[in-house]
Amino acid sequence: MEVSYDPLRATAALENGIFPAGCPSRTVLDHVTSKWGVLVLLALSEREHRWSELRRRADGISEKMLAQTLKTLEQDGLVHRQSQPVIPPRVDYSLTDSGQEVAALLVPLATWAFENAEKILGNRN
Q1: Are 44 and 79 in contact (CB under 8 A)?
Q2: Which CATH number belongs to the domain containing residue 99 in this structure?
Q3: 78/111 Cα distance (integer angstroms)
Q4: pLDDT tens per residue, range 12-40
């Protein structure tokens, strides 16, 4: 999926949208850019994952936080949960079209953070 970026539309959204306290976009931004939300979306941008695979990919996440994050992202329509009728039970997680769109925007940000983390954190005193 290709994501287009329109600077004029983005500027209008920033000027008119996300700054008021009651704006729903702030809730969406909170969910997408949460500590674990970003990592889950990035992991699922690679491919579909099972619960245990996501837990390993997002090193350090607790079961409770993974469950909450997946539930929130599923309710937001970004993650799809597919229960498999097998024993033992199996659940697969993947991105919806909206999830793929937002993940495509997060990948460059995560790449930038990875490439610049040492320089930025090295500037701290």
Answers
A1: yes
A2: 1.10.10.10
A3: 21
A4: 556 666 667 777 888 888 899 999 999 99
